[in-house]
Amino acid sequence: MKKITWILLLTFLAPLCVFSQDWHVGGFLGISNYSGDLAQSRVDMRYTRPALGLMVKRDINRYLTLRAGLNMGHIAAADSTNESKLLVQRNLSFRSVIWEGNLIAEINFLDIYDKGFTPYVFGGIAVFSFYPTTKDSLGNTVTLRRLNTEGQELAEYPERKQYNLTQFALPFGAGVKVMLSDAWTLGFEVGIRKTFTDYLDDVSKTYVDQDLLRRFGQKSVDFAYRGDEVNGKGLTPGVYPADGTIRGSDKHSDWYIFSGLTITYRIGGGGSRGPFGRQKFSSCPRY
């Protein structure tokens, strides 16, 4: 009777314990890019900047991995390098540091512990912070948000509230990872972040009346439109546009992208070895 009980118990548990939930720790090293109102093309690779991060992963089974990560990258763009003379004449620019915390699910197409590699797709949720700045004509750093360059918080523009510097994003993308050994895994991925703000670059809607904007100080007017600083490229310095003139486009939110290499170290797991000498998941007791 005791033997039959053990057989029944193991038969019931077998489907649940074929794969253990193994932990990995690792890092990310790559590049960051931006897509928004100051990029004439979808992504301007000339403004590629470095990015790095840390992550913790847990294998739920051979096809599903959950991970939590912390990433840091830089994004930037400038009208001065656009081909359109209208954009060059606008003469805006920005740069920002992106800090991101994320929770992501990876869907693996293959059993990496059997095949030694697998392509994968991923998606999840992230919280990130940004802080758009620019440089003045002397090279000094200027913080853009506090200047309210599009009339944020003016009573005459009640729909223009100040944007938050901490926002949610939806990360998604694809990659491939390869086992270097039982413990180490190397990967490459491209991860796109859909945000819900159009102000990564401090540009979104239309110009506001400069006399009203001057309530925040002359500096707000100076950095809302910088066409008067244009020099060269066959352009002449411009004048501040009329109220309601298009400054950016609020039809689409801004995006940022993290791409690069991942390296992880497996700190959990055990069990028998499969093909290629790689260790399969196994959390079941042996009898």
Structure explained in plain terms:
It contains five helices and ten strands. The chain has one domain (19-277): Porin (Beta Barrel), CATH 2.40.160.20. The strands form two sheets. Strands 1-2-3-4-5-8-9-10 form an eight-stranded antiparallel barrel. Strands 6-7 form a two-stranded antiparallel sheet. 33% of the residues are buried. A hairpin with a 5-residue loop joins strand 6 (133-135) and strand 7 (141-143). By secondary structure, it is mainly beta.
Topology:
Layout: H1 2-17, E1 23-35, E2 49-59, E3 64-78, H2 85-90, E4 93-108, H3 112-115, E5 117-129, E6 133-135, E7 141-143, E8 166-179, E9 184-195, H4 210-213, H5 218-224, E10 255-266
Antiparallel strand pairs: 1-2, 1-10, 2-3, 3-4, 4-5, 5-8, 6-7, 8-9, 9-10
Short overview:
By secondary structure, this protein is mainly beta. 13% of the residues lie in helices and 39% in strands.
- CATH names the topology as Porin
Low-pLDDT windows of residues: 4-20, 270-287
Strand content: 35-45%
Widest β-sheet, arrangement of strands: 1-2-3-4-5-8-9-10
The end-to-end distance, rounded to whole angstroms, is 17 Å
Question: What order do the SSEs take from the amino end to the carboxyl end, as H and E?
Answer: HEEEHEHEEEEEHHE
The helix content, as a percent range, equals 10-25%
CATH architecture descriptor: Beta Barrel
Structural class by SSE content: mainly beta
Q: Which CATH class applies here?
A: Mainly Beta
Biggest β-sheet, characterized? 8 strands, antiparallel, barrel
Number of strands: 10
CA radius of gyration: 26 Å
| Global geometry | elongated
User: What is the overall pLDDT average?
Assistant: 87
Number of helices: 5
The structural domain count equals 1
Protein name: Outer membrane beta-barrel protein
Domain DUF6089: 7-207
Organism: Chitinophaga agrisoli
